[in-house]
Design goal:
The protein has 168 residues and is α/β, with parallel strands linked by helices. 24% of the residues lie in helices and 12% in strands. The protein contains 3 helices and 7 strands, in the order αβββαββββα. Strands 1-3-2 form a 3-stranded mixed beta sheet, sandwiched between helices. It starts with 23 loop residues before the first helix and ends in a 7-residue tail after the last helix.
């Protein structure tokens, strides 16, 4: 979805989190701890640290308060539930400097299209057409989701600003 020519995924040792993710405030604490891991590891600012949270514990108990992920605009760390690639994509968008698109949540007034429409026709790798009157931007809380030209351009510019010379 995003203009990245490549990316590397590196797994680090699991982090034991003592918080209760049934409480929204503890999601904030988890994000703080992930940022601490990034700092302790000496990772550059351009590296994104993303914690993958299991949906259930070993006893089959639900871990979360209804929050699917967390990150902050312009900060390259966050967390989200396993099995939710769209959540990860959304949280990475925050790391690239994007606020929410206005659908299902108070969105950025800078977002150019009403109702978080993708604004222009999109096409996925299989050639499927993504119609702007149907698809909502990945940074919204509405479905179905796709990336708008607005979101794509902001991430493209972020990548250039961070020294990426080959963006897709």
């Amino acid at each position: 979805l995003y203009p990245l020519s490549s990316f590397d995924v590196v797994m680090r040792a699991p982090h034991d989190f003592a918080g209760n993710l049934r409480q929204e405030a503890d999601w904030q604490q988890l994000a703080v701890e992930i940022n601490g891991l990034k700092t302790a590891d000496g990772a550059p600012d351009s590296t994104y640290y993303y914690g993958v949270v299991p949906v259930e514990n070993a006893n089959g108990r639900w871990f979360t308060s209804g929050v699917a992920g967390i990150s902050a605009v312009g900060k390259r760390f966050g967390a989200g539930l396993t099995g939710s690639p769209l959540t990860a994509t959304h949280e990475f968008g925050h790391g690239f400097g994007l606020s929410h698109a206005p659908c299902g949540v108070n969105g950025s007034q800078e977002y150019p299209y009403p109702g978080a429409s993708i604004g222009e026709y999109g096409f996925d790798a299989n050639g499927e057409v993504k119609e702007p009157n149907k698809y909502k931007d990945i940074m919204s809380y509405c479905s179905p989701k796709w990336v708008s030209d607005y979101t794509y351009k902001i991430i493209y510019e972020d990548q250039l600003a961070n020294g990426q010379t080959t963006v897709a």
